[in-house]
Design goal:
Length: 457
């Protein structure tokens, strides 16, 4: 006899055989000579019912099998005569593994996401967050599948870095020096690494070094922003997927990004259907139809200039004024996807002045070969560019952004020794997870959210 997950048991695996299930009690209902236990082990949303007769081994502990307690049940998996369940377990023995007293906070009632964030160590046991984190696991697996099927190599880029990819300066310093020592040594010569280092905001620059050797690579890891933002879309620690491809131009970059978003949506619809059912019922009633509409309709492609023209002619009153040269805001992106095109949109060729130094300058001298993927309900879900492969132009861009060529000599070497056109993009893992679940707050799709003023556990 081996342990059977509740997911397998509910599928009838082990039917009419003696099985072992382990999990946590969701509810207990007592009758005169037996009790019903609803047990969940996290393998799926649904519980399995176990009937514990009076007198079987362990039944003396049944009154301690309260909500939140952990149990082991050995019994026969049989067809259930009750409604709403195909299979149940007729217990032959019960072992009470761990008790839970009346202070257990996840009693059988509704709990707000705000309350559940306060008990992040217990919230995975709730229906909502069990679904969220099972979906997160499946989505991570699908990301690896997508790239591995296409011959990409998975590269681990450093979490501690001396490079500021975005040039925004919103980085966490990693240091062993105290405040006075840091003031006395701003160059970090006496620090642990002998120079100022930070938690990474992106693995892109390091990823490019491998793309210029292995052709197609991807990174998938945590990134950090010391941005004092309290919105529902920003976190201080989050995960990024960043592919880099040699011999790719912007057109090929956009195509791969669009294919990836569609692949992830299809995989979620296929493999996380039960969990999506909960999201569609309790989180966002339009979720399933929105996801299906995105994969049914190809991404529209428009230039940034065209996007600005559409927004200016829309007649909409935006909180952030629209004019050529400004960054598109979420309200602009959602208008394009939800109101104008009623579907996903890829915007490309942004003003050079609002993009980082590594993006390729277009022939017009005003724009960069950059792109953003926009989807309904979220706005931007991925962004990327063709990288500047011309050494002279790259050095000019670095000077314009006041970036030291000595600090990035290794990056310039990629253009000095066998330079090739190459491109890449970044997709925020949590942003994608918000899109496929309908969950509106990034704090609710990360196991332990790190935001300004909050680093619990």
């Amino acid at each position: 006899m081996k342990q059977t997950t509740i997911k397998d048991a509910l599928a009838g695996n082990g039917a009419n055989e003696t099985i072992l299930i382990r999990g946590w009690v969701r509810t207990r209902r007592d009758s005169k000579d037996f009790s019903f236990l609803a047990i969940n082990d996290g393998s799926c949303l649904a519980n399995i019912q176990a009937i514990v007769d009076e007198g079987i081994p362990g039944s003396d502990d049944i009154q301690q099998a309260t909500t939140g307690a952990s149990v082991e049940i050995t019994g026969k998996l049989v067809e259930s005569p009750g409604k709403g369940q195909a299979w149940e377990v007729t217990a032959e023995s019960m072992t009470l593994v761990g008790t839970a007293d009346e202070s257990y906070p996840l009693q059988k009632k509704g709990h707000s996401p705000e309350f559940l964030r306060e008990i992040a160590h217990l919230r995975p046991r709730s229906n909502l967050f069990g679904c969220v984190f099972r979906t997160r696991s499946r989505l991570a697996y699908a990301i690896h599948q997508f790239f591995q099927k296409r011959g990409f190599y998975y590269i681990h880029t450093p979490i501690i870095t001396a490079s500021d990819c975005e040039g925004a300066g919103e980085m966490f310093r990693v240091t062993t020096l105290d405040g006075k020592a840091m003031e006395a040594d701003p160059e970090g010569r006496t620090d642990f690494f002998g120079k100022p280092t930070h938690l990474t905001v992106s693995g892109q620059l390091e990823g490019e070094t491998f793309a210029c050797a292995l052709s197609n690579i991807y990174t998938f890891g945590p990134t950090f922003r010391a941005e004092n933002s309290h919105t529902t879309r920003h976190a201080s620690e989050f995960w990024m997927i960043e592919p880099e491809m040699a011999f790719y131009d912007l057109e090929a970059d956009m195509t791969l990004a669009e294919e990836m978003v569609n692949y992830l949506i299809k995989d979620t619809l296929e493999h996380s259907a039960e969990d999506l059912g909960l999201f569609g019922k309790f989180v966002d009633k339009e979720l399933i139809s929105r996801l299906e509409s995105v994969i049914a309709k190809p991404f529209e492609r428009i230039s940034y200039t065209t996007a600005i023209e559409l927004l200016e002619k829309s007649g909409q009153k935006f909180e952030h004024p629209v004019e050529w040269g400004v960054n598109l805001q979420t309200e602009h992106e959602r208008f394009l996807t939800e109101e104008h095109f009623k579907g996903p949109v890829t915007v490309h060729d942004y003003p050079k002045t609002i993009k980082p130094f590594y993006m390729r300058t277009n022939d017009d001298g005003r724009t960069a070969a950059a792109m953003d993927l926009l989807v309904p309900g979220i706005g931007e879900i991925a962004g990327g560019s063709q990288r500047e492969e011309r050494l002279e132009v790259l050095l000019e861009n670095m000077a314009a952004h006041d970036i030291s060529p000595d600090d990035y000599a290794w990056y310039a070497d990629l253009r000095r020794y066998g330079s090739v056109p190459h491109a890449g993009f970044g997709l925020g893992f949590e942003r994608m997870l918000m899109f496929v679940t309908g969950v509106a707050n990034i704090r609710d799709v990360i196991p332990f959210p790190r935001t300004p003023g909050n680093a619990e556990f």
